Structures are given as structure tokens and as C-alpha cells.
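User: Can you write out an input/output pair for a complex, sequences first and structure second?

Assistant: Here is one pair. Inputs:
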Amino acid sequence: MPSSITGQLALVRAEMDSRPPGLIHHVERVAAEALDLAAHWDLDPARVELAAWGHDLFRSFAPADQLRMARECGLALTPADEASPLVLHGPIAAAVLRARFAVTDDDVLAAVRDHTLGLGQMPLIAVVILLADKFERRKRERDPVMREIRRLARRDLNAALLCWADWKWVQERTHGWSSHPVHWQARTAWVRDHHFEAGLPGRVREEEFETARS
Ligand SMILES: [Fe+2]
Ligand SMILES: [Fe+2]
């Protein structure tokens, strides 16, 4: 197994070759977007590219296969995961990248694992991959608000993350979809951090979030 990032990236790209062309093109757009952000925020492009190519390694797998693989990887499944197995493709990819592709970079693995739902504390690479995944060119064309979030990400990555979470919240409430508890926890932490940084009093209580969630 290669110990260099270049070798790991070559293996992951070769594995992606067997995936549907539409998914490969999405990953190419995410990698381009993430590398652009990496240059802006002075992040190591090789690590960012590895995370970008790994993030959707199992995105195209059927829900039943994702549940099976998650169990094989030893992931703890919640009722929310069982209801939407698609959210498991990041955690599965992170586990497989570590076990089969010898990826040991914790920030890269976190970026792959948490790119769908987010997490309260994320390394910069993970924030970059999550955002690039949401505002790659095709998604900006589909939803113009992503252009604004992309613009904001050049000024303040955490603010862009929070804006994306707000957009997601509106989408979920508009369509009557529930929020995944892991994402909601992350969102709650991002709001708290934002209030702390802005010097706002800690007025947001857990019950208010719980009410807003339903
Ligand atoms: Fe994904
Ligand atoms: Fe993706």
C-alpha cells in the first residue's frame, strides 16, 4: 500500500474509474473547486485533492449495499441512518480509505467522513470539501444561492458553512423533510461558535433549536 499521498491518490482515482460517469464528473468539479479554495486558504493541495477524490467513492452504491458496507466497517447505525442510508457513503469511504488505501491523514479522513452532514468541529480541509461539494459549478447553476455562498467562502469559511446550513434548513422545512440529528448537532455548534465570535450573549437554548428542528 502506498504511504505517499500521490500514490494513494492514484489508487483512489483508479477505483473511481469504475463509477458512473456523472459521479466522476461531479468529483472532478469538486476537486477543481476545492483546489481553488485550498490555494486561497493556503492548504496543502495534495491532501485536499485526495479528500476530494475520496469523498464520493461509494455515493453511487444502492442503499442496501451502503447499509451492508456500513455494518461491515463496524459503523454504529442510528435509526436516522437506517432511514436514509445515503448519508453513510462518507463514513464508509473514510473507513475504506483507511483500511484499503492506507490513508492515515486524520484531516483527510474527517473531510471524507463528514462531507454530507458536517460536524461541530471540522478541520479546514473538511470545511473546504463540504463547501466545494455543495457549490461546484453544476450545483451553482442549479441553485444561484450557491454562487453567493461560494463568494462568502473566500472571505469567511465558517460563515459560508453556516449560510449553507441555513439554506439546508429552509430546504428541509419547505419540503417537510426532517433534519438528520448529526447535521442538527453540527449546525447548533456552528451557530453557538458564530454567536461567541460575534460577541453575542449565549441566548440560544437547546429547546429553541429542538422546536425549530421539527
Ligand atoms: Fe457525497
Ligand atoms: Fe459529492
